[in-house]
Structures are given as C-alpha cells and as structure tokens.
Amino acid sequence: MKNVTDSFLSFGHWPSAGSFGFNTDILSTNLINLSVVLGVLIFFGKGVCASCLLSDLLDNRKQRILKTIRNSEELRGEAIEQLEKARARLRKVEMEADQFRVNGYSEIEREKLNLRNSTYKTLEQLENCKNETIQFEQQRTINQVRQRVFQQALQGALGTLNSCLNKELHLRTISANIGMLGSMKEITD
C-alpha cells in the first residue's frame, strides 16, 4: 500500500518534463486510472448516485439484450416457418416432377406404340398398293398380249381367207351369213 501512496504523493520518481517514459508498475497505473475515472464521475455526477447510474446503464443494456433475444427468437421462428414452407413446396415439386416423369415415360411409350402401329399400317397400305399395281400391270400386259395375239391371228386368218377365197366362195359365205341373220330375225320376232 505504501507503493500506492508514493505514486500519488511523490513526484520525485517521475521522469523530468523533457523526457517521456513508461511506468511499468501495473498496480500503480491501474489505481491512478481508476482514481481519475472516479474523480470525473464524482465531479460531474454531483447529486447523481453512481450506483443508480450504473444500475440504469445495466438495466438499459439488459433490456436491449432481451429485446435482441426476442427479435432473434421471432426471426428464428419465421425462418423455421419459411423453411418448413419451402420444404413442403420442394416435396410438392418433387412429387409433381416424379408424376411428370412417369407421365412422360408412359406418353413416350404410347407415342412409340402409336408410331409403330402407324408405320405398320402405312407399310401394309404400301404393300397392298404395290400388289394392286403389280396385278394391274399383269392384267394390262396380259390384255396387250391377247390383243397382239388376236391381231396376229386375225391378220393370219384374213391372209388365209384372202389367199383361199375366190369370188364364188366369197359370195356363198355372204349368202350363208345373210341367211343366218334372217333366221335369227325370225326367231326374235
């Protein structure tokens, strides 16, 4: 304690005004600082109780801390509520995505089946058209061959008739044909 009083009363140990130095005695410097603060508080706080002032400061600090805690709790509650809503929306979106995926796969399979059926029908129609075209071409070719054979046979028969037929045979053939036509007319009447 003697050290403390010496630091207040004795100026002989302090360095001269022309130099600067540090006091390394922690105990004496803290007491000096404390005494200066208390002196300022007493001087400026005349009529104000220091403990009341400190109590008010602590109460205000406590109220601010409690208010901050309440606000934090409210924000935490709101954040938890928003998180739950976001999780619910995420679950809903995931279910919808799964449903779209399942529907998409079934739609793809349905479209593949429709396309396959359509392709088979188109191929069947093309096959039928091809067969009809082949039959038509065969019939046309057969008719052309028949027509040529008939023309050749007719030309051959005319050539044979012209070479074998004389005037008298020609007249008899005409008379016979006229007779046949006449008998046919009588039958129809």
Automatic annotation (TrEMBL):
<keyword id="KW-0406">Ion transport</keyword>
<keyword id="KW-0934">Plastid</keyword>
<dbReference type="GO" id="GO:0009535">
    <property type="term" value="C:chloroplast thylakoid membrane"/>
</dbReference>
<comment type="subunit">
    <text>F-type ATPases have 2 components, F(1) - the catalytic core - and F(0) - the membrane proton channel. F(1) has five subunits: alpha(3), beta(3), gamma(1), delta(1), epsilon(1). F(0) has four main subunits: a(1), b(1), b'(1) and c(10-14). The alpha and beta chains form an alternating ring which encloses part of the gamma chain. F(1) is attached to F(0) by a central stalk formed by the gamma and epsilon chains, while a peripheral stalk is formed by the delta, b and b' chains.</text>
</comment>
<dbReference type="InterPro" id="IPR002146">
    <property type="entry name" value="ATP_synth_b/b'su_bac/chlpt"/>
</dbReference>
<dbReference type="Pfam" id="PF00430">
    <property type="entry name" value="ATP-synt_B"/>
</dbReference>
<protein>
    <recommendedName>
        <fullName>ATP synthase subunit b, chloroplastic</fullName>
    </recommendedName>
</protein>
<keyword id="KW-1133">Transmembrane helix</keyword>
<keyword id="KW-0150">Chloroplast</keyword>
<keyword id="KW-0472">Membrane</keyword>
<comment type="function">
    <text>F(1)F(0) ATP synthase produces ATP from ADP in the presence of a proton or sodium gradient. F-type ATPases consist of two structural domains, F(1) containing the extramembraneous catalytic core and F(0) containing the membrane proton channel, linked together by a central stalk and a peripheral stalk. During catalysis, ATP synthesis in the catalytic domain of F(1) is coupled via a rotary mechanism of the central stalk subunits to proton translocation.</text>
</comment>
<keyword id="KW-0813">Transport</keyword>
<dbReference type="GO" id="GO:0046933">
    <property type="term" value="F:proton-transporting ATP synthase activity, rotational mechanism"/>
</dbReference>
<feature type="coiled-coil region">
    <location>
        <begin position="69"/>
        <end position="103"/>
    </location>
</feature>
<comment type="similarity">
    <text>Belongs to the ATPase B chain family.</text>
</comment>
<keyword id="KW-0812">Transmembrane</keyword>
<keyword id="KW-0793">Thylakoid</keyword>
<comment type="function">
    <text>Component of the F(0) channel, it forms part of the peripheral stalk, linking F(1) to F(0).</text>
</comment>
<keyword id="KW-0066">ATP synthesis</keyword>
<keyword id="KW-0375">Hydrogen ion transport</keyword>
<dbReference type="GO" id="GO:0045259">
    <property type="term" value="C:proton-transporting ATP synthase complex"/>
</dbReference>
<keyword id="KW-0175">Coiled coil</keyword>
<keyword id="KW-0138">CF(0)</keyword>
<feature type="transmembrane region" description="Helical">
    <location>
        <begin position="31"/>
        <end position="54"/>
    </location>
</feature>
